[in-house]
Amino acid sequence: MLTMFIRAIFFYGFLLLLLRLMGKRQIRQLQPFELVFTIIVANLATTPMADVGIPLLYGVMPIGALMLCYGVFSLLSLKCEKAREIINGRPTVLVHNGVIDQSEMRRQGFPLPALLEQIRENGIQNLSEVGCAILEISGNVNVFPNSSTRNLIPKDLEIHPGYENIPMHFVLDGELQKDSLEFVHLSRTWLEQQLSRFQTTVENTYFCSVDTNGMMWVQKKGEEKARHVQVLTDSQARWYE
Questions:
Q1: What is the pLDDT of residues 57-81, one digit of tens each?
Q2: Which domain-ending residue is among 61, 85, 109?
Q3: Distance (Å, rounded) from C-alpha 173 to C-alpha 170?
Q4: C-alpha closest to that of 139 among 30, 19, 25, 24
């Protein structure tokens, strides 16, 4: 019984490592060869995990062989465009300027009701409003409205907004985010000086971040409000340029 327990933990950790090597993807984003790899590896691990009479090596070796195949296919997909098309396929335009490409719909085996559902999920009611609908290799459908029905953007109104990007988090639940501080070339001493303006420390701070306008947002532990203050100039906060 203990042996089965230990084997289960071993294969769990082993498979977790392999999936981690595949990168951060959701199931719907897996390429065909990646999905096949995931399914087969899960089945291969099940038998030696439950049957203590089968040596662990008999489970590890075929999984290792599949991992080698996965690495080869990944390298081919990365380096060779033709191989990438053969292994993964390529995006397909299903709708162009409100007109459905019936031959591509049949070739991809994509039913019309499913296409209309994807269009509605993208907030478009009428097919005539679709400028382009693309079936991605992940199986997801990206729908883009035509220029006459899409939302206005600042460029349409000749407005030029200032620089904007994701904020940098420095403290999460009392834990200092050293990588974030190093990325923007700031020190813990600087951060503690800024936090002192809020009468708090790193350990007593629940959340602290600085946005790309140079504004620091701080929420103390146990408090139900967040406060902010300008700590950097606009030029200092442009850490992604």
A1: 777 788 778 778 877 877 887 777 7
A2: 85
A3: 10
A4: 30
